[in-house]
């Protein structure tokens, strides 16, 4: 058989089935028995057949081929890796593949990736916007009719669907936990005010302090990249404040791990000498030493929900956005330490 | 201007340049001044122009558009995340974008991803083959003329370019290091014999033991998934062996971190009660507690080299494969501990 000229009939012959059974499998139908499907898939592989999904989908629905584009900010932050794993679970069983790209917090690169994904006919896009992204940056994308889910980071004014965790609820609980342990000088570390998620997460932190009758000290809200390196930088600056904090709520777990690194580099033990709380509950949060107290958002679960939300939009052919907020819960482990005695500071 | 009907002329007008200058920028030419290029790119973004690269490239060269496909096995293993970051650096500056997918060690999913990437006109593919992949699985891909770089994991018999680290050299050095500390019962943890990288890495381990006059005990070579969870599983089985090992060389850093978790769960301190050596030198290896002794392969550097190798093939229009082996070096940190006294075992 000549390369590139393998037809459905060749596949059917090799697998010993009818042409229509092969077509069903190619269309991702679940009505074909698994054993038969495996035999057909083996024949497809052996013969090097490439199903022109784009053309087939076009014939069927006048629509696009089966790719879900995903754009995140930092591949080395395991939150995004786990989010992608969750997305994969759902899109795979729906017969899609995920093409993942990172914009590394660069809005220009983000636009380039969106453009490239549009050119290559994605069916939908899940995006965690880069710092400094404006809702207007997605206008062309939205008016092209490609379903979009903005995940993790809010984008005020967007018409796309959004999937956020209850950010303020989470940091409020984290701050209340530190207050209940006796801390009064509590820092907020990481993030920048051009990220909507920063506003939401510092909002919960400020609320909890105010409710406890403590004035927010803006010196203790320290901007830094939302990465491990950002955490190292932030704790360095926090410890240089004249009246030092004794605890910190961090923008995310990556920052919290960096804070722990930075504390150790100064011979301070996280959990014993300084209380640290993260946000996300990535896989390593549980196994880290000390295990990280954090606000759990279930990153894989968020990925699954983002994918489900997107597929729903694709299948309903609707571009109407939905706003979904997922629940969070505080998971208390070792990094926030035991109750401390800082009553003298309150005198 | 009507959406989707923005032309090069509109861009030229908005940016105050000629139509041919816009074309040069769209084609990625470096002959346009940066300031002008930035102004044109801003106009492209503002107007929502999508350059049909596929069509333009087709007109120019009869060839493909500008995507590099990358397929890895496990997004939550930061080795692959760092590899992707390295690839991004190089492909970005060459005017490509990276579409990353994970096959989660599933050869069927891998074939589906390859098929989908072919359909969508990738310019080239960098792939870390899933467990159980045969060179024949890539035959159709290779004969389609798309340049392929097989990275990290070898695929005996492939005609594609390969980029491997000096696996046996690395594990030989790791094993010699443990021998020099006095260890005699040294386990090899993680991986399966249907991964070529497993053969190479256990090869170096076996060589070092033999050279030291120690017979390899196959009970101490323990198969497990090449993940953190696999490491927890493997150390559990290693510690159940009648004559317990006192040290382990691990397939990779992910396994080594799992081994540390598993030791702690049994109240053994890695580095003090049991020596652990990893392979990769991912970012966390340095900051982990204890810091991980490991064979450094410079994952980002490997990503950059894989991308450079692929771009060279794309630009030369050659499908001739090259085999590149990258150097490794042992980085001694805390997890391998101090010299121990196990001389009684040698009596």
TrEMBL record, chains A, B:
InterPro entries: HTH_LacI (IPR000843), LacI/GalR-like_sensor (IPR046335), Lambda_DNA-bd_dom_sf (IPR010982), Peripla_BP_I (IPR028082). Transmembrane segments: none annotated. Coiled coil: none annotated. The keyword Transcription applies. Pfam families: LacI (PF00356), Peripla_BP_3 (PF13377). Keywords: DNA-binding, Repressor, Transcription, Transcription regulation. This is LacI family transcriptional regulator. Residues 6-60 form the HTH lacI-type domain. Gene3D superfamilies: 3.40.50.2300, lambda repressor-like DNA-binding domains. PANTHER family: HTH-TYPE TRANSCRIPTIONAL REPRESSOR PURR-RELATED, LACI-RELATED TRANSCRIPTIONAL REPRESSOR. GO terms for molecular function: DNA-binding transcription factor activity; transcription cis-regulatory region binding. CDD domains: HTH_LacI, PBP1_MalI-like.
């Amino acid at each position: 058989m000549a390369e590139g000229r393998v037809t459905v009939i060749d596949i059917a012959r090799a697998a010993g089935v009818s042409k229509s059974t092969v077509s069903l499998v190619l269309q991702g139908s679940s009505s074909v028995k698994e054993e038969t499907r495996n035999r057909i898939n083996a024949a497809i592989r052996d013969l090097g057949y490439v199903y022109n999904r784009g053309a087939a989908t076009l014939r069927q629905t006048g629509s696009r081929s089966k790719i879900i584009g995903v754009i995140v900010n930092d591949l080395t932050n395991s939150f995004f890796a786990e989010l992608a794993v969750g997305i994969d679970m759902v899109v795979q069983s729906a017969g899609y593949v995920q093409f993942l790209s990172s914009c590394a917090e660069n809005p220009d690169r983000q636009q380039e990736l969106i453009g490239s994904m549009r050119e290559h006919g994605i069916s939908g896009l899940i995006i965690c916007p880069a710092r400094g992204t404006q809702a207007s940056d997605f206008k062309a994308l939205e008016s092209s009719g490609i379903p979009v889910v903005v995940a993790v980071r809010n984008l005020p004014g967007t018409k796309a669907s959004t999937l956020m965790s209850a950010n303020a609820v989470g940091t409020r609980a984290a701050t209340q936990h530190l207050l209940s342990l006796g801390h009064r000088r509590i820092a907020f570390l990481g993030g920048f005010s051009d990220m909507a998620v920063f506003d939401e997460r510092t909002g919960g932190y400020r609320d909890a302090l105010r409710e406890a009758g403590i004035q927010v000290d803006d010196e203790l809200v320290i901007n830094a990249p939302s990465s491990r390196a950002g955490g190292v930088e932030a704790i360095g600056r926090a410890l240089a404040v004249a009246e030092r904090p004794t605890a910190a709520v961090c923008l995310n777990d990556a920052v919290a791990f960096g804070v722990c690194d930075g504390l150790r580099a100064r011979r301070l033990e996280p959990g014993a000498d300084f209380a640290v709380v993260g946000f996300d509950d990535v896989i390593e949060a549980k196994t880290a030493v000390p295990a990280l107290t954090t606000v759990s958002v279930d990153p894989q679960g968020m990925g699954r929900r983002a994918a489900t939300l997107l597929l729903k939009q694709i299948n309903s052919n609707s571009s109407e956005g939905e706003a979904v907020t997922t629940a969070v819960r505080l998971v208390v482990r070792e990094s926030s330490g035991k109750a401390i005695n800082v009553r003298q500071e309150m005198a």
